[in-house]
Amino acid sequence: MNNPCLLKNISYRAWYMWRRNVDVSLVTWKTNVLPPLLEPVLYILAFGIGLGAYVQQISYAGQAYNYIAFMAPGMVAVGIMFHSTFDTMYGAFVRLRYQKTFDAIITTPLSAEDILAGEILSGATKGTFAGAAILLIITLFGLAAYPSSLVILPLAALAGVMFASFGLYFAALAPYIDNLNLPIFLFINPMFLFSGTFFPLDGMPVWVRFAANLLPLTHLVNLTRAATFNRLHAGLLWDLLYIMVLTAVMACIAIRKMKTRLIK
Amino acid sequence: MPPVIKAAGLRKNYDELRAVDGIDFEINRGECFGLLGPNGAGKTTTVKMLTCALPVSGGDITVEGMSVNTDPRGIKYILGVCPQDVNLDPDFSVLKNLIVYSRYFDIPYAEARRRAEELIERFHLHDKLERPIEDLSGGLKKRLLMARALINRPKVLVLDEPTTGLDPQSRRQIWEEVRGMKSNGLTTLLTTHYIEEAELLCDRLVIIDAGKIIEQGTPAQLIEKHLEGKGNLEDVFLKLTGKHLRDE
Known about the structure:
The complex is a heterodimer. Chain A is mainly alpha-helical. Chain A has one domain (7-262). Chain A has ten helices and two strands; from the N terminus they run ααββαααααααα. In chain A, a hairpin with a 2-residue loop joins strand 1 (57-60) and strand 2. The longest helix of chain B is centred in the C-terminal third of the chain and has 16 residues, at 168-183.
């Protein structure tokens, strides 16, 4: 338990924590399944049809697209981000502070690292599920090209781990549940708005593009959009690399920080 | 026979505070061993170090020869832990609590189901099988905690204030269970500040205060030594720890 090496303390038992959280989601499946299916429909109605009536064509990488088609892959990326971040951010905070779930499990053969890796995995699972559900909806609206859009599924799993790690890290930092408004205001919402989700970054000033490229969601949006437009190319490997490195780093930082809250 | 549990020079520091300040004890096989002390004496801290929920600051505790410092998983497989705070899983029913918990010990589903039904019968929880945890009374919650602690067929049972906040009926029922388990040879560590409970259940006990052991022996020995046989264990306790109020 005092072993400083993170990986050494993670075992197959992390799946038991994952299964516990998935079991809970299955008990309350209706409230878990409907939002990711209905949210994109709302966005498509409001932005695609409402705003899209004024902004008919949008230029992206030298080609013109319908606004609704431009926005749809952004919604997929946003769904992955919201659902995985919130699952660990609020879920793990509640399990840590209010439900004392971790206190009960820490006296079973699971290590703190098993518990927290399981948390990240179940958050990533929710994000992946949300990403897949939104992809299904935009596919029904004819807004996703195949087979290139299938890349989104493994991508959602990877980005899910990244955002779930961010969520767990925020939960570990927050003394009170109200403090969680801060990362939403400072991190999640800016990403939602400025990651190329609603408008292309190409025409923006250099400093805006630079700032946007620091945000992990920008790289995910680049990838999901290229996938739904069937315009995947080798240059996107940089986006993928950025996400992979940040995922590994954040997962380690989040587990380490949360462990200090779990066992003092 | 070597002791089942052995604590040697066990310490826990929180910054300046020495919550547990170098304690030693041994618990023999089949014994019910009491850890007594006023609030804030270091009972729960000691229990948490034993159950590998807290790292030790110094010294060691071993269970069946395994050290909390080097083999926490090995220890956690053979411990049954009934915590002071109710930490049942509020997202699940009574039955599902036992099933999910058994998974953490690698118990396959069919076996877990068999054990859960057996424990539900034994702890009179059968009427509440599918109820959510929040519907249970305090006594039922404690009974379920105890059932949960036994799902992995532990070699050592750890009961941290098992009857705090319970009505006399529920308390007596828990005592019955502890006695039953003792007669089956289960080694038990019990913390309590109900002296009557310790007198009734414990073969041997230590009294700790401010993180140190201040007295140890059988209940009868302590009464004999401090009160020349006149009085009860509570009088001994108060004589040793003083009558002033303690903060948590």
